[in-house]
Design brief:
It is built from 3 helices and 4 strands, in the order βαββαβα. It is of the alpha+beta class and 109 residues long.
């Protein structure tokens, strides 16, 4: 990383039903909790309450900042229909500086 400071941008991965994914994305962007949310259709295989499940879902790739992570996770939980939604936070080690600056700017309240 050549002495660069680790980015304060974070990526949150969330799965949701294909029907509700766009609504969650819009909620986060409009509240300025996320600069951008990518949505892709996936098929998830998992065990739930003792049985095997395979469901079509949406994967949301949410770009936010470290300081917005807690509030973003809470906002997702408030609108998500799942009893146990997947919410995984990943650090962004480095990236294109203008893009990282844009994420920070778009999530300022």
């Amino acid at each position: 990383m050549d002495g660069e400071e680790v980015s304060q941008v974070r990526v949150i991965l969330v799965t949701a039903s294909r029907r509700e994914g766009p609504g969650i994305a819009r909620h986060l962007v409009e509240k300025r909790l996320a600069a951008c949310v990518n949505i892709t259709e996936i098929s998830s295989c998992y065990r739930w309450e003792g049985r095997y499940c395979e469901e079509p879902e949406a994967l949301l790739v949410i770009k936010t900042t470290d300081e917005k992570v807690r509030e973003t996770l809470a906002a997702i939980r408030d609108v998500h229909s799942y009893e146990l939604p997947e919410m995984i936070v990943l650090p962004v080690i480095s990236g294109y500086p203008p893009y990282l600056a844009w994420v920070k700017e778009e999530t300022l309240s």
